[in-house]
Write a structure and sequence with these properties.
alpha+beta; eight-stranded mixed sheet; BirA Bifunctional Protein, domain 2; homodimer; Rossmann fold; elongated; 2 domains; 19 strands
């Protein structure tokens, strides 16, 4: 009967939920090291860390209608015992706005904060597209001057260079939503006297421009008009602008000229009589001037009207860091690496809570994309140093082996005793290989009686196994015997590569 | 009409969900520094980092029945679009068991991993009790030998000492669930031939012993019998053991003797004829012997039968790190700081997935408790160095001020330009104070024309403000003028305290 019962036990599936993944060893260490270096730059710029919880109320995140039965579009949400909807944060900006509102009387303003951590999106997972991923943000809340935007752009450039992306391999592109709004006024799809009108069309226009990279000018133009059918046959509805209206928008998208001054002049023409548009052009001019004064010229920062950013909450300058070096894509074709960070000014996010406008601007780095870029540039990707493995020849003398590991650690050397079943010695050496151990320590009964240990240089051993002659192999220079008291010194010599001189 | 509409807008509440909190500045930095130092120790012991996602399937977490409509007792759970229940992890051990099962053919075994990160509990929040908190774990999976348990205990001791908890201020207490099981056999509430019987009673006994600290021997004894009514009038049902049975259990709880050998001898008597019990006593003997050989004597590690750990999944050795120094509690009474870490052996957790037994042992550090302990010992709690604040006297010369900050940063000095509204200069100095700025830089039109800047030593200024005479105050030694080109050097002198020599 006990057997029958056991049969019925349904075993859980050993897998994370769809769209989630695990990060092992070097992946965790490399990300941490990158974030540590970014934090150093942010710190030097006067930003302080803030860590909010992963969970927020849906109303604070503010993307959803309270009357939707299950407001989980795009986020992971659930109802708590009091009926309140909670959700995992989908970015680090919405929680910052909540904090800035909550602590508006306690924090020093401008409040300069950085934040690093996972965010969650309840989206369809795909290759390389996960439902939990890291962001790394820096924002200044309560800074009306576009000097704050200029500073964030300068800091972003410095961050990339600090991480090993040299000048010429990246560019910060800057634009301004006010200019876009001015152009939309000129195109007749934004009426300053009735800003709610044409909202749907403007949303489609924004998303269309944001896809310029992927769809090209023709694709964007189709989305400004009737719509676009993609390769898979799916149809995306367009903004149904007239040809004249679409011309004005496309003129904006393609307004970049040979230098910043000419681009600004062209934008001035495009916004026509729009006061908002003119203010936006003036802001861009100020930002470009400040950055130029700091030594960030057109080789690092440029005004590019095709950058609009997808998020709806931006109100002024927007910016994006793009890596310009080529990589090979999945299909073997060369392509530019692309965007790794972006941000902009969002003057109304805190207002949602307080009713008072609190100007703010900030940037978000896509941590996984930037890590991939650093790997592509060979800046990271070394493997983690494995531990010296003390093997177990005689399980009754476990105390001796633990003591050896203790001595090695005391000398600052990463070390461990093999703690699996010691019966099969070959498994112990296989384990040491898999851990990328630089050395294995061996002491059987005979060695113990003679007061010695064997030290096996696994780096040299691997090299010999690949290329050594039988004669060399027989000499076994990769393994040598030392008095027990000299264990630490002998391992130090192996780690320094000193025993590999002859190979 | 627009006004009417605005009235209807319901503003979101600027607060995190109940039981969650935000961590600012120094709090984030101190925790990070502590975790970095712990990670260094874990790394030296051969442990590799693993980061699993915050979200797991409820079936993988394995605490809940699949037929419960909403399985959110203790966890935050929700149903995904396919109807599968997902939840935020409630500890780092359950995800490790899932990973060890999922990657059993890919990972080197024994798999030594550490993990640090938040976990979530859907429990009633209380003072100092949050629904998101950090854990920091190290586990060895696939290690049948109790040498693995001994090593974790040694590492735990070394970790505490590395963080600044000296010997004498902590003790690692060790026990073994097998011994408790042996005692339960002797008391007639565990039948090896029918292990399912008396499960409820054993659960009550386990939880009762785990509360010894708080309830005292009398309270535990009440819970072994009919039950216990607490000060608030709430009644907790007891295990309804006979007086003789309760005697045996209490004999176990109070089995600690003057030294380990005598405690082990007493435990040997208590488990009587139980084979499991005898095996447990032998394991404790082995662990104590190994630790003693490594220099961890009774001043740091001791066998204490009153330690059982609350979690149901432990199968062998269990251990706990207790801080023995006194602190003052909320009511002003002195008390021992108490437990900051605990763990043990759980040989069946991976088996849930694979059907094969995978022996494992590990420890979890309560990060917030340990941080509080380090604060209580004065090991942390210094404030974060504030930035030098470059004030804005003339908003048309923002470029000049940004350049000053850039130069200071280039010299490795934390610096920023005041980016709020510059109209009220007093606000700028107040801001500098609130940021704990060591210095403020001032350059008005006059100074600019003369090619100089004012450097204000805010540390000295604060000191003068507290104690200076009018004469000293008039001399204003806390503020001095230097040529613009000497800005960085002057700030360096201020940071070194050189200008405060006369105060």
């Amino acid at each position: 009967m006990a057997k029958d019962k056991a049969k019925k036990v349904r075993r859980p599936r050993a897998a994370p939920p769809k769209g989630f993944r695990d990060y092992f060893g070097a992946e965790v260490i490399e990300r941490k090291e990158m974030l540590d270096r970014i934090a150093e730059v942010y710190h030097r710029y006067g930003f302080d860390p803030l860590e909010t919880s992963a969970v927020e109320t849906v109303e604070a995140l503010g993307k959803f209608l309270p009357d939707v039965d299950r407001p989980n579009e795009g986020v992971f949400a659930w109802q708590d015992e009091d009926g309140e909807w909670l959700a995992l944060r989908y970015d680090l900006t919405a929680p910052l706005a909540r904090v800035a509102a909550q602590y508006r009387n306690d924090l020093p303003f401008p409040y300069r904060r950085y934040a690093m951590g996972p965010v969650w999106r309840n989206e369809k997972p795909g290759p390389g597209r996960y439902r939990q991923f890291y962001q790394c943000d820096a924002d200044t809340v309560g800074a009306p001057s576009v000097a704050a935007d200029a500073e964030i752009c300068a800091m972003l450039a410095e961050t990339l260079e600090t991480l090993g992306i040299p000048r010429g391999d990246y560019v910060i592109r800057i634009n301004n939503r006010k200019v876009l709004n001015g152009v939309m006024e000129a195109a007749g799809i934004l009426d300053p006297a009735d800003p709610g009108r044409h909202g749907k069309e403007r949303g489609i226009v924004l998303r269309a421009i944001d896809k310029l990279d992927r769809l090209g000018a023709e694709g964007v133009r189709a989305l400004l008009g009737e719509g676009r059918r993609d390769a898979s046959g799916d149809f995306t509805e367009g903004a149904r602008l007239s040809a004249e209206q679409a011309d004005i928008i496309m003129g904006f998208v393609e307004a970049r000229r040979a230098d910043g001054a000419r681009t600004l002049a062209r934008l001035g023409e495009l916004v026509g009589a729009s006061a908002t548009g003119a203010a936006g052009v003036a802001e861009l001019e100020t930002i470009a001037g400040l950055l130029d004064g700091l030594g960030f010229g057109a080789d690092r920062v440029l005004i590019d009207p095709s950058v609009v950013r997808g998020l709806g909450y931006y109100t002024g300058p927007v910016y994006e860091a793009e890596l310009t070096f080529e990589i090979t894509d999945d299909k073997g074709r060369p392509r530019q690496f692309g965007s790794v960070a972006g941000g902009g000014r969002y003057d109304d996010l805190v207002k949602r809570f307080t009713g008072q406008e609190v100007p703010a601007t900030g940037v978000s780095i896509g941590v996984d994309r930037l890590l991939a870029a650093l790997r592509a540039k060979g800046r990271i990707g070394g493997s983690v140093e494995g531990p010296v493995v003390v093997t177990v020849m005689d399980r009754d003398r476990m105390g001796d082996y633990l003591e050896m590991a203790r001595e090695l650690r005391g000398a600052g050397i990463r070390a461990e005793v093999y703690l699996g079943n010691p019966k099969n010695f070959g498994n112990q050496l296989k384990y040491a290989d898999r851990r990328r151990a630089p050395a294995a320590i061996i002491q059987g009964g005979d060695e113990h009686a003679r007061g010695v240990v064997q030290v096996k240089d696994l780096v040299l051993g691997a090299r010999l196994a690949e290329s050594a002659s039988l004669e060399e192999w027989k000499q076994q220079p990769a393994q040598f015997e030392v008095p027990r008291a000299e264990l630490v010194d002998a391992v130090r010599r192996v780690l320094a590569g000193a025993t590999r001189g002859g190979a």
